[in-house]
Design brief:
Blueprint (H helix, E strand, L loop, with lengths): L2 H15 L5 H10 L4 H14 L30 E6 L5 E7 L6 E6 L7 H12 L2 E6 L14 H9 L3 H18 L5 E5 L2 H12 L4 E4 L18 E7 L3 H4 L2 H11 L3 E6 L16 H18 L2
Parallel strand pairs: 3-4, 3-5, 5-6, 6-7, 7-8
Antiparallel strand pairs: 1-2, 2-4
Helix pairs in contact: 1-2, 1-3, 2-3, 6-7
């Protein structure tokens, strides 16, 4: 399995261990990834045995947010539109585009392993609502787009079969499109879960066009080095997300070695995917604080 396939498989197994997926559904999803039954059973057992471990926090989430409060950024969010643009090798890429009235910069939004969902469209519109024109590329464009998948697990499995080089090429095409749409402005990248890992992959692949990046709970590539990048990085983690938090020291060491400005925010009492207000792990206090910090970071490094 590729590192990203392994990440997806471990996420499925973790969801099962935490009671978010039945055993039958977890095995079905692992099978869609191409994992044989014995290996899938062993992975589920390993995750069940490992239990949950909390990671130490470097920064605790502050402030307060009522569980009934609107998700951060939604009050001023703009409605994104569906667009297409030219991708690598003559391919056409689908995307959600939200244009700020007077953009201070541009943000590439990188989706989770469910594809370009309504939640990611919402986040794209939230950035536009606070002054950053935003573009979210559908990384399943070549397969017809996320909307063609009626089974969310099949969309996830399809993403797991795409070569990493294609992800990087499509995301770089997205940055090129952003540069065209917000000429002369600095660019950032924000990704969530699987998309957080792809944000790190962009940084370790060399992306001098990025001035800033804010990966949310994304795994840092094994042995990755941040070379050829000038981005200031705010890395966001959840204190309860021990699986992804384990890669934080490697990410911080790589950023130190590269000499790039960086901070890690570890939200207290928050698990993986805590920013996704459509999911079971949504934590409103942590989400509000993370959003505040991201906007502060982009205010400093994008303008």
């Amino acid at each position: 399995m590729t590192p990203l396939q392994r990440y997806i498989a471990e996420e499925i197994a973790t969801d099962h261990a935490e009671g978010l997926l039945s055993r039958r559904e977890a095995l079905r999803r692992l099978g869609l990834l191409g994992m044989g039954t014995p290996a899938a059973v062993a992975l589920l057992a390993a995750c069940a045995d490992s239990g949950k471990q909390s990671s130490p926090t470097t920064t605790a989430a502050s402030g307060s947010a009522s569980p009934a409060a609107a998700p951060p950024g939604t009050a001023t969010a703009l409605q994104p539109t569906a667009i297409t643009f030219a991708g690598p090798e003559g391919r056409t890429l689908q995307a959600a585009w939200a244009e700020a009235s007077q953009p201070m910069g541009g943000v590439l939004v990188i989706h989770e392993n469910r594809g370009l969902t309504d939640h990611i469209r919402s986040v794209t519109g939230r950035f536009a609502g606070v002054g950053y024109s935003a573009l979210a590329v559908d990384l399943l464009s070549e397969e017809g787009g996320t909307a063609t998948f009626t089974d969310q697990a099949a969309a996830t499995a399809a993403l797991g079969k795409i070569p990493q080089d294609r992800f990087v090429a499509d995301l770089r095409a997205g940055l090129t499109e952003l540069q065209r749409r917000v000429p002369g402005k600095k660019l950032g990248a924000t990704g969530f879960c699987f998309g957080g890992g792809l944000t790190w992959l962009l940084l370790t692949s060399g992306t001098p066009e990025l001035a800033a990046a804010t990966p949310f709970y994304g795994p840092f590539p094994d042995g990755g080095q941040v070379t050829g990048s000038k981005a200031a990085v705010l890395a966001v983690y959840g204190a309860l997300d021990s699986r992804v938090d384990a890669s934080r020291p490697a990410a911080e060491a790589a950023l130190d070695k590269a000499g790039l400005p960086h901070e890690s925010f570890v939200a207290d009492n928050a698990d993986h995917a805590f920013f996704n207000d459509t999911g079971p792990r949504y934590q409103p206090t942590a989400a509000a604080e993370a959003w505040r910090r991201v906007l502060d970071w982009y205010g400093r490094y994008l303008g």
